[in-house]
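The instructor's notes for this session suggest beginning with a concrete chain rather than abstract definitions. Hand out the sequence below and ask the class to guess, before any prediction is shown, which regions might be ordered.
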Amino acid sequence: MRTKLIVNTTAGRGRAGEVLNKVQACLERYGVNYDLICTKAPGQAIDLAYQAASDGYKRVVAMGGDGTANEVTNGLLSAEEGHQVTLGIIPAGSGNDFAYAVGIPGNAEGACRRLAEGRERAVDVVQVTVDGQSRIYNYGVGIGYDADALLETRKMTRLRGFPMYLLAVLRVLATNTKWPYPMRITVDGQPLPNQAVTLITVANGPRAGGGFLIAPDAQPDDGLLDVCVADQLGRLGILYLLPHTMKGTHKGKKPVTMLRGRHVLIESERGAPGHMDGEVLCTQGRRIEFEILPGRLKVWC
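After discussion, reveal the predicted structure:
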């Protein structure tokens, strides 16, 4: 299979660049033939993936974090007409939550072996529209508290992976006073009561932040969005639920509500921050709309 490898060497605080030689040796050992190109700027993987599809590559592999996989996905889907291209992933970022959702091993050896011995799988993606601007995402959007935590990780220079996200959550807990956020939430046309929300996750996969099972039952190929709403949590409430989110046992605990649907609308007059696949989505989103696109993406896993 003609394969293009797109590498974001800065992903995972430089981890992708550190393991690139090992990955190349693994791919050679498993007989995976490929052409390699490295990104030089944020967003460039979108254009590189689009070009690879246009050039006739049948598989485009994103090596980096969830943000890199997101960019490659957007590039492939923008070139979808007339091209049948499969996404591959070598996870080398901080969270690697999309790779986890589709069952790709988190280590270089296992991911490279999967490229040689795996199979094609159709999975869903989600279109999110924030105040009129649309984008595709793979596994999750978080709005409110966890988005504040993501913004906090941008201030960190030494930690990476799950410890980085956990420390950011605790820092925001100690210093942030912006939440809860007044919001109106509608799922498949059914409005929930107006709420003061601490966080909302609209998920296409079970995990976020490299270790938080926010939507433990979410599957990337069931044609449904899993929605987790935590209503009016204070600091003590967050501290109580935090260990449960690492195990997925927050389901059924007040004030957490779990919902499923194909279309979600979130409205916030004040505006709220959001993250998408581990990257910043917005800082003051007021109208955020979600639509599931069943089976739209082919993944090699």
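Then share the key points. The chain has a mean pLDDT of 92. The two ends are 14 Å apart (CA to CA).
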